């Protein structure tokens, strides 16, 4: 700012010339200067007051907003947090198709020690050894009196054990809260659930991760907080699963089998309602994987998807269905079944002599290897392979547990004519029982491919058509005749019109090639009700032998079929299927004029 002089020379000289007092000019300029200084001071004060007022308004707004948030938020006890990365321990529940709990998180505690804070290490070691018999008192005492400042004692303990440790009363024994995975049904559906363990661990938290089964397959989904802890809903029915496991365990014991598996599948959705593999395990105390011996002997081995077997005569219906679909034959076409059927140095024989000729329907009913092989010759290798690929028999099933990815079918190196003939009756191609269930579902639902799934579906999930409806319908009639008049007569269940096919395949040796003479894989693949199929049931027994009669019997008709029949009796009512009278086909009547 430019100040005006108090005594400007021009005005002073002019005032003297007029005889006026020059001091008046000076006093006037002083007064004006003071007024300007006063106005400037007032403006600065007003600006400061305005800024201060705005600060007060903002501060009170923040305080009010925070009070509103606290008033609407759920009250929670404050907790001290240790520095470092946060461990997310939350994991969504797993439930069956009706919302019944299969897996959940359970709040428990870990136990650790800080030796510098311990009052009586000897008494603490003695008390802990009494509470936890697997701990050694001497080792504990050496740890407590050593140089270590932190010692893990137990990574999870029960409330009773926690109380017992409390009663020891040593301030150096401390607890950390954490979650553990709990399977309230024990061994039930153990191969589906798989199990969980701890990943990253801290004193006050531990990361729960899946190690097998569906827990590992959907690990990211179950741990993702974005899903709002919504439970993962499976297609399993807990009551059906329990009944199936009980029946299969009883059948396995009665038939002296070393292992067994069963699969119950909805033919239109591909939902697996029940899947059992025996022997099983408790996922709450999952055993360690075997490091030696036959992996299939381990209870961790899932026979339903990892058990890749030659499934024998259960494959014959695929050959006949394809021949019907291609128009090569009809159910009444007569097939030459004279044996043995020679191809080079190979000989194909039937289990017993069925006659020199049989209709296509009888080939399935009596399970003729020769008749099926002759049909395969008409189909040809290329068409057979293409059809089995469309059914999903040549690739992994895509079933949503990690073990299913290891169940890849074993194909012949050279798909020659002799391979085509042997594959037609279930030899030379190894698949899992889950593959077989999906294949039979396609026949049962009218010719549409289905994908096996462990997740609950809403409505039919039919894939591409792989078989015409007339061919599928004719195949179902043949499967029904196998039960009423053929090799699966023990499989008939009153009111449920069971249809199916038996399969007894020699078990290959683990070393040296060839097959065992007295060990078989016995399978019964069934659909019910045959006239309106709703479900497919596969029952497979590993090395069964029926010793009730005078001679030991190993074929599926004597071993797997009775087990499957008992299972259908138990589970069909649980599925809501009411016994019905099987419809009878009426003879065609032609009207004629007299």
UniProtKB/TrEMBL annotation:
Which positions fall inside the Penicillin-binding protein dimerisation domain? Answer: 87-223
For this UniProt entry, what is the primary localization, expressed as one broad class?
membrane
Pfam families under this entry? PBP_dimer, Transpeptidase
State its location(s): Membrane
Every Penicillin-binding protein transpeptidase domain range: 262-545
* InterPro entries for the chain: Beta-lactam/transpept (IPR050515), Beta-lactam/transpept-like (IPR012338), PBP_dimer (IPR005311), PBP_dimer_sf (IPR036138), PCN-bd_Tpept (IPR001460)
Keyword terms: Carboxypeptidase, Hydrolase, Membrane, Protease, Transmembrane, Transmembrane helix
Q: Where is this region: Disordered?
A: 278-299
Transmembrane segments in this chain: where?
49-69
Can you name this protein?
Penicillin-binding protein 2
The organism is: Roseobacter sinensis
């Amino acid at each position: 700012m430019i100040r005006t002089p108090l005594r400007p020379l021009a005005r002073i000289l002019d005032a003297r010339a007029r005889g006026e007092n020059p001091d008046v000019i000076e006093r006037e300029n002083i007064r004006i200067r003071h007024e300007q200084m006063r106005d400037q001071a007032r403006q600065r004060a007003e600006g400061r007051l305005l800024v201060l007022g705005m600060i007060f308004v903002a501060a009170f707004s923040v305080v009010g907003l925070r009070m509103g948030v606290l008033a609407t938020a759920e009250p929670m006890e404050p907790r001290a947090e240790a520095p470092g990365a946060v461990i997310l321990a939350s994991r969504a529940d797993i439930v069956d198709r009706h919302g019944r709990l299969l897996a959940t998180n359970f709040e428990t505690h870990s136990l650790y020690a800080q030796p510098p804070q311990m009052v009586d290490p000897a008494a603490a070691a003695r008390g802990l050894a009494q509470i936890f018999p697997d701990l050694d008192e001497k080792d504990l005492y050496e740890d407590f009196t050593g140089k270590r400042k932190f010692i893990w004692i137990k990574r999870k303990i029960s409330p009773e054990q926690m109380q017992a440790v409390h009663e020891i009363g040593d301030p150096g024994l401390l607890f950390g809260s954490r979650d553990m995975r709990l399977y309230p049904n024990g061994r039930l559906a153990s191969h589906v659930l798989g199990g969980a363990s701890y990943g990253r661990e801290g004193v006050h938290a531990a990361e729960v991760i899946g190690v097998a089964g569906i827990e590992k397959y959907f690990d990211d989904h179950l741990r993702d907080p974005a899903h709002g802890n919504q439970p993962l809903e499976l297609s399993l029915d807990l009551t059906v699963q329990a009944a199936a496991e009980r029946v299969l365990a009883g059948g396995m014991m009665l038939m002296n089998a070393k292992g067994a598996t069963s699969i119950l599948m909805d033919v239109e959705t591909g939902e697996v309602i029940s899947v059992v593999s025996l022997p099983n395990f408790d996922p709450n105390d999952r055993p360690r994987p075997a490091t030696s011996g036959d992996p299939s002997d381990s209870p961790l081995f899932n026979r339903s998807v990892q058990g890749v077997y030659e499934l024998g005569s259960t494959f014959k219906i695929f050959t006949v269905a394809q021949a019907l679909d291609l128009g090569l034959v009809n159910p009444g076409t007569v097939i030459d079944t004279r044996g043995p059927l020679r191809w080079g140095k190979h000989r194909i024989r039937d289990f017993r002599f069925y006659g020199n000729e049989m209709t296509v329907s009888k080939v399935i009913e009596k399970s003729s290897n020769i008749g099926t092989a002759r049909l395969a010759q008409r189909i040809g290798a290329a068409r057979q392979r293409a059809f089995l690929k469309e059914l999903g028999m040549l690739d992994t099933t895509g079933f949503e547990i990690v073990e299913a990815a290891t169940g890849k079918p074993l194909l012949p190196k050279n798909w020659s004519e002799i391979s085509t003939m042997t594959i037609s009756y279930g030899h030379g191609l190894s698949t899992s029982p889950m593959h077989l269930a999906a294949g039979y579902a396609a026949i049962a639902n009218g010719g549409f491919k289905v994908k096996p799934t462990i997740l609950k579906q809403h409505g039919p999930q039919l894939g591409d058509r792989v078989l015409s409806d007339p061919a599928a319908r004719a195949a179902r009639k043949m499967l029904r005749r196998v039960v009423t008049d053929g090799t699966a007569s023990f499989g008939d269940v009153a009111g449920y019109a069971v249809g199916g096919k038996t399969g007894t395949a020699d078990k290959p040796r683990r070393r040296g090639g060839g097959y065992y003479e007295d060990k078989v894989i016995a399978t019964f693949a069934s659909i019910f009700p045959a006239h309106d199929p709703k479900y497919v049931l596969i029952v497979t027994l590993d090395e069964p032998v029926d010793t009730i009669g005078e001679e030991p019997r190993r074929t599926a008709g004597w071993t797997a079929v009775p087990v499957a029949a008992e299972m259908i009796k138990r589970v069909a009512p649980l599925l809501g299927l009411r016994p019905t009278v099987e419809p009878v086909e009426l003879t065609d009547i032609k009207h004629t004029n007299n």
